[in-house]
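Deliverable D5.2: sample structural annotation.
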Amino acid sequence: TACVTRLNELVPSATVTRGEVDRPRGFVDHSLQAIASVEAFAYADHKAGLVGRVFRALDDQGRWVFLDTTRRTKKTPAEAFASAWAEPLLSTNDEIEELLKLAGFKSVRKVAVTDQVLVAAKQGYANLSQVLENAAQSGFTGREGALFLQELAWEAQSWRARARALEGGALEMNLWIADKTEQLAPLELSADMLAVAIQPD
């Protein structure tokens, strides 16, 4: 709920929807100017189905912007993901770019954001003790409290492993911009602009 509220503050016209990541339903063909997603590729089992459905949902000038984790090794480090609900199925950058081009996207660009994500992760760890204290004061007890702490522990442990994999170069994070039209101008997203756009909250 907090994420949706924050998004509505930043982009009042945005619509947030939930759906199956492999074949997202509920999109009318050629109806959307843009789609934003976070780690859809990381968890999609049918990546071609995901790309094809997004491409059809966008209008003729449409743009897909997504943040995703990719691997630079043959195998995904499973310990870097809290996989209680879905197994990570990471692609390489080349695999993502090939799928986007095959689907018909005319322009595919990416910006490295690993450093910004690591800064946000470290800030999250710095805030962890306060989150736990707030949870205790909010009366999280019984089964609900136990589940909250279990989920939090999984996330904290997996993000430590993910941060190590990002720092060591086994994983990387990129912001991708895929356009249905050819983009002649270079992508001008500086580190300062990203620092403003990607905050620890």
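Annotation notes: The two ends are 13 Å apart (CA to CA). Strands lie at 32-38, 58-71, 107-112, 171-179.
The annotation will be released with the project's public dataset once the embargo ends.
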